[in-house]
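Aim 2 progress update. The chain analyzed this quarter is reproduced below.
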Amino acid sequence: MTEQEMEMADCLVRIFENVLITEEMSLQKGYFPDLSLAEMHALDAIGPYETRTMSETAAILGITTGTLTVAVERLVRKGFVERKRDEKDRRIVRISLTRQGKVACRMHGKYHRVLARRALDPCNEEEAKLLLRMVHDVDDFLAAQAKKYNERESLRKTAKEVAGEKRRRQNNG
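Predicted structure tokens:
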């Protein structure tokens, strides 16, 4: 491994760890100290505007409905999620965010917008396009690697698809 490759690898690992740490700390020190990062990501997957089924939400998160059921139960108790049976088919459980859940979702989105803005602010238009292209390239490479390791990839949405859906929902809302 060259010196440059080592530096890049170290930097990418630090970025990943620091995003997770600062995201978690922003929750703990902010308005929602009773939410874990996993719970916040569940709120994001449910989304502030739609009512989703448990199955749809589990697929977005790439987890089982059983695992989601445990998380949703906690979020219902904490007042962030509502759960209702479908009126036409009582076997289907629909979940949506409460007012408090929507506020948490928006605040978490603000964290991501500030992070993106901070990365792009020092750049002129050409540099911003280059940086974005390079980040897309890293994202594409990691998605391809994940696909190799995950037999179920065809059943799961990629992080890129989830981010795109979330961005569309925010732009429409």
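The chain has a mean pLDDT of 87. The chain has one domain: 22-172. These observations will guide the mutagenesis experiments scheduled for the next reporting period.
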